[in-house]
């Protein structure tokens, strides 16, 4: 089935998945990723035997790898097998539905733009609460500029994680590719912390996500630069990305900040402690309106990717006509 998905067909299914996402958004009940999160928690509780313990060692790395494999591979392989058994039309529909369930373009808008509206309305308490839903930093005493910065950073980074990484792997392997990436990225978000509990157990999930995200992240950074201040975005990407611990968030966020001509990064409070993060971008401090600008950049990037895929598919069809 996967071998029969030509680029023009993938382009059509990609467009359908994006339209479904923008029209319907996340399902409010029984979202598949919610069930997957429960499975991940169940596996972690049984395989992470030495959380925050001096006994942790190489075996915890192997248990983390086993947990990743048990969480991701059976679902991905079962989906690929099911697609191969279904009639052609139903299989195509399932590919599009898988992309819809895995992508989060509208979710980004629905979670971040209300922060901008709350800030513009002067409702700081609501803006703090809404921001706490999408970031792990402390927001109880955050100033409007801190919340705006957090909203823009989340939009830029999750543009890659929730949208463009998924689209890239959908183009590589259809619905199972999108599913593989989204599940892997979800495990990284759950386990990929440098805390005593997850330092070893969560490392395989973090490294696998790094590998799967390497190409999409750089395509995303390039797209942000192309649609914004190209010169500044490229300069920030080149000089600032290496300072970030994440090999993929660095290029995406530095290029995005430069494209928007904003100064991001810097100090943020996590668990009551101030963390001095490397700078991102250059220019003015973020405001509520910049969250909207960041959303427009992500939306334009999605349109650019779809247009590029359709154009390449059309050219290839003409060449083979």
Automatic annotation (TrEMBL):
Keywords: Cell membrane, Cobalamin biosynthesis, Membrane, Transmembrane, Transmembrane helix
Cellular localization per UniProt: Cell membrane
Pfam family, one: CobD_Cbib
Keyword Transmembrane helix: yes
Signal peptide: none
InterPro entries xrefs: Cobalamin_biosynth_CobD/CbiB
First-listed, main subcellular location of the protein, grouped into a coarse class: membrane
Keyword check for Amino-acid biosynthesis: no
Spans traversing the lipid bilayer: 6-24, 65-84, 90-108, 162-181, 302-319
Topology of this chain in the membrane: Multi-pass membrane protein
Pathway field: Cofactor biosynthesis; adenosylcobalamin biosynthesis
Function: Converts cobyric acid to cobinamide by the addition of aminopropanol on the F carboxylic group.
Family: Belongs to the CobD/CbiB family.
Name listed for the protein in its UniProt record: Cobalamin biosynthesis protein CobD
């Amino acid at each position: 089935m996967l071998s029969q998905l030509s680029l023009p067909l993938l382009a059509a299914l990609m467009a359908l998945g994006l339209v479904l996402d923008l029209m319907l958004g996340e399902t409010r009940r029984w979202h598949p990723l919610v069930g997957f999160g429960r499975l991940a928690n169940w596996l972690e509780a049984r395989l992470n035997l030495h959380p925050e313990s001096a006994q942790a060692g190489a075996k915890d790395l192997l248990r983390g790898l086993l947990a990743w494999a048990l969480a991701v591979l059976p679902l991905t392989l079962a989906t690929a097998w099911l697609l191969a058994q279904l009639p052609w039309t139903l299989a195509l529909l399932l590919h599009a539905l898988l992309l819809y369930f895995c992508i989060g373009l509208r979710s980004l808008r629905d979670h971040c733009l209300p922060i901008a509206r709350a800030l513009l309305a002067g409702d700081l308490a609501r803006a703090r609460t809404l921001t706490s839903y999408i970031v792990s930093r402390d927001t109880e005493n955050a100033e409007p500029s801190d919340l705006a910065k957090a909203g823009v950073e989340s939009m830029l980074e999750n543009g890659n994680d929730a949208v463009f990484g998924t689209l890239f792997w959908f183009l590589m392997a259809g619905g199972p590719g999108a599913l593989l990436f989204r599940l892997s990225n979800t495990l990284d978000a759950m386990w990929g912390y440098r805390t005593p509990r997850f330092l070893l157990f969560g490392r395989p999930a973090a490294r696998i996500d790094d590998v799967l995200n390497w190409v999409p992240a750089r395509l995303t950074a390039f797209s942000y630069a192309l649609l914004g201040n190209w010169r500044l975005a490229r300069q920030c990407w080149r000089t600032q990305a290496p300072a970030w611990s994440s090999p993929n968030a660095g290029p995406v966020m530095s290029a995005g900040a430069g494209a928007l001509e904003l100064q991001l990064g810097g100090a943020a409070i996590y668990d009551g402690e101030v963390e001095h993060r490397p700078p991102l971008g250059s220019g003015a401090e973020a405001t509520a309106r910049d969250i909207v600008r960041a959303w427009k950049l992500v939306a334009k990037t999605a349109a650019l990717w779809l247009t590029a895929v359709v154009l390449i598919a059309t050219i290839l069809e003409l060449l083979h006509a």
